[in-house]
Amino acid sequence: MKSLKDLLNKKKTIGPLNLDDQTVFYVFRKVIKEEFGNVGAGKLAADFFKNKTLFVKSESSVWLNELWTNRGKVMKKMNGELGEDAVRNIKTK
Is 85 helix (H, G, I), strand (E, B) or coil? Predict the structure, then answer.
């Protein structure tokens, strides 16, 4: 029988997550809908994901400013669903 210590050490050796753009975009839409409702989800769109940075675009500078103000909370919720340190930064365009 394996000890609990061996199982916990084995869990830590699992490699880093390889996230594809679609997964990150889905979680972003879900978190934005929770935070800002249907209007926010319609106004903010994830553009691309590279080097743990999510780039977001919108037609309205007001919504980009709202996202920028709450980016810490959004990143915390996204990392809670995707795994710790999956998204390090959110940039707006």
Answer: coil
